[in-house]
Specification:
- There is one protein chain.
- By secondary structure, this protein is an alpha/beta fold.
- The chain has 6 helices and 6 strands, in the order βαβαβαβααβαβ.
- Strands 3-2-4-5-1-6 form a 6-stranded parallel sheet, sandwiched between helices.
- Helix 2 links the parallel strand 2 and strand 3.
- It is globular, with a radius of gyration of 16 Å.
Amino acid sequence: MSERGLILVNTGNGKGKTTAALGVALRAVGQGFKVLILQFIKSGNGYGELAGLAKLGDQVEIRSMGKGFIYYKRDEVGEVELARHKEAAQTAWHTLVEEVNSDTWDLIIMDEINNAINYELIDVNSVVDMLKNKPERLHVILTGRYAKPEIIEIADTVTEMNVVKHAYEKGIKAAKGIEF
């Protein structure tokens, strides 16, 4: 096997995209990797992964840089709200590029970046260019719904999460410790 870092994508409408990436982060830390998780949409309020990852020590760092979830139907988001999200996503993007180029990390998880691209908060071509020019050894995971064909094409592994059944459909609210 080569020492080339992999590009993985977790996408689809089903639950588990971030959860799967966090599982890889746990595995990576267990192998002595240094991991950065940069959250593009999540604002860092009330997510269990923040407290859980803090217990892993300085091998993993998580930065929630978003303004919270935005609706999946773009036409339902007002221009002021969209501008707020775009500003936060651009700040996160610049941070990501800086961290990728630092060659400090073994694994970087770009949580919800596919949603940020879908909402045109970040340019897909810029992301593709960054992926093509990342340090050779760096592993990356891109999560979020609506992965663009350009992202899927450059990826080494793409996993699509599909909903078969979800508790929400029965009126069951998101469960603490399971979904957040």
